[in-house]
Amino acid sequence: MSHLNEDTPSRAGLLAGITAAVIWGGWPIVTALGVGGHFPPLYITLIRFSIAGLILLPFAFRTRLSAKDWSQALALTMVAGAGYTLTTAEGLVFAPASHAGLIIPSTVMIVGLVAGHFVLGDRLSWHRIAGALLILAGIATLAGSSLGDGKSFIGDLLFMAGGILWGTFTVLMKRWRLNALTATARVSVLSGLLLLPVTVSHWSTIMALPVGELLLQGVWQGVMSSVVAVILFGHAIATLGAGRASVLNTATPGVTLLLAILVLGAEPGLPEWLGLALIVSGMGTALKISVRPLARRGWKTLARAGKALSDALLKPDYSWTIHK
């Protein structure tokens, strides 16, 4: 069973992972605000990769890349670049953000479990199978509730498609032994370059949009989700280990649902709450989570984690990255 240690590095990793989960959980909310305002999915995609590509450029090509490296980078861009962002953002035109926050990470985990077994050689143990079945039941609950509303059902299908794309991205990263920062940097830079003609043709229109919306989307899409969360989660992996850091991602669906209520005024029904319970239970079962020690220590642990994280980020350690 996974337990979280009390040493300072682990506390820093804990808060880093939680913060990353909150940022990623907030992505469907911020994107829904944009789609419901003046930012169609295309503009969200363009501003995301324009900003992230520039920021992550130093991390993308630190050494000369071989033909194999370029082919891998292009393959990752195909599944995690503009196609992923357009697909999931378009889904928010049809379905609520709460569905995106539940379906996308759930589908990612299902793809990871199945592809991990057939592609990476990770054995499907009983707890992974049970977790996958619970997750599928949660997705089915949400999708089933949308059958009467064809528009929402289309959105759910787009979220599943986006989850399949991102799940493929994570599997390829593991197969090729790339870390998240390097892979994300290359995807962001290549996507920005491929989209450059479209970005240039729409840039004046984007810059004329309301300043508040422009700042919100620019910061969250191009900085928080694409850069800050990736670095924080990388720090969590470096200090807690990949398995324990993955535990923290189970908070993402709950974060999205809570923010949908607080920010968007959503009123989740029984299918959403039941879907959340099934999905989080499935994730926990698949990862064999035991967080009772954390629950007993509560806010004192998080306070110490905050201090440790601030100390760690003053002297960032990128030793977890693969210099390739």
Structure description:
With 324 residues, the chain is mainly α. It has one domain (8-314). Helix content is 81%, strand content 0%. Helix 5 (97-118) runs parallel beside helix 7 (150-176). The longest helix has 30 residues, at 211-240.
**Distance separating the two termini:** 33 Å
What is the domain tally? Answer: 1
Number of DSSP strands? Answer: 0
**Helix percentage range:** over 70%
Our Rg estimate from Cα atoms comes to 19 Å
Strand content: under 5%
The largest β sheet comes out as:
none
Low-confidence spans? 1-6, 316-324
Assembly state (oligomeric): single chain
Q: Which structural class is indicated by helix and strand composition?
A: mainly alpha
Provide tags for this entry.
single chain; 324 residues; mainly alpha; globular; disordered N terminus; disordered C terminus
Give a brief rundown of this model.
The chain is an all-alpha fold and 324 residues long.
Topology:
Blueprint: H1 8-35, H2 41-60, H3 67-80, H4 82-94, H5 97-118, H6 126-146, H7 150-176, H8 180-194, H9 196-207, H10 211-240, H11 242-248, H12 252-264, H13 270-287, H14 292-297, H15 299-314
